[in-house]
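dumping this here before i forget
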Amino acid sequence: MPIPADWPTSEAQALAEQERLRPLVRAQDDDTPYRLIAGVDVAYDDDHDLVVAAAVLLDRDTLDVVEEATAVGRIAFPYVPGLLAFRELPAVLDALAALTRTPDTVVCDGYGLAHPRRLGLASHLGVLTGLRTLGVAKTPFTFDHHDPDPGRGSWTPLTDPATGEEVGRAVRTQPGIKPVYVSVGHRIGLDTAVRTTLDLARRYRQPETTRHADSLCRRALTEALRTRTPAN
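structure:
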C-alpha cells in the first residue's frame, strides 16, 4: 500500500489541505437509504513504520458482520494533534476499497466537525470518498460539555469554547457509563448521527462498528509484525 504521491508531507501542507476541504463538508441528511454500515479503525507500530487499517461492514438491523478487510502500509504522516487524519487516511481508504460492497455509512473512531478546523477524520474521509460518515470519539478533545443524565440516550451539546458553536454531542450509550462524543462527518445531520450511534451501541459503550474494527486492526497489526520480524 504506497502512500499517495501527492499526500502532504509537512504541517503547513496539511493545514492548507484542511482549509481547502472544509467548505465541502455537508452537515445535513440526504435521502439516500442505508443498511450497510462500516466501521473503520487504525493501529500503529511507529518503531516499525507500520500502520494497519480495518474496515468492517455490518448489517444495521442485525449488527451481524457482513464483510471485513484490512490494509497494511507505512505511516503516512508524523503525529501532530489535529492532523491525525493524514496519518490514517491512506490505509483507511485502501481498507474500504478492499470491501466488495460499498457501505451506506461509515463510522470513524474519531472526530468529524468536532475538530479545530471542522475537518476531523470522519469529515475528511467523507469529502474524499463522497460517503456518508460520522465520528464517534472516546474523548471530547478540546471542546466543552456538561455530563449527560445517566440514562441511555441522554446527551448534552459539545461546544467550541472560543465560539460557543455546537460541534457535536456527548451521548450516553449505556446507563451510568461515561459518554461517547458524536459529531457529523459528511452527508449526515447531528440528530441522525446520534440516532445511528445509539442503534449501533445496543450493549456496549462503543458502537459495534468500532468494536469490530478495533479488534480486527489490532489482530492484523500483530500478524503483520509477526511476518515481518525474523524468528530468533
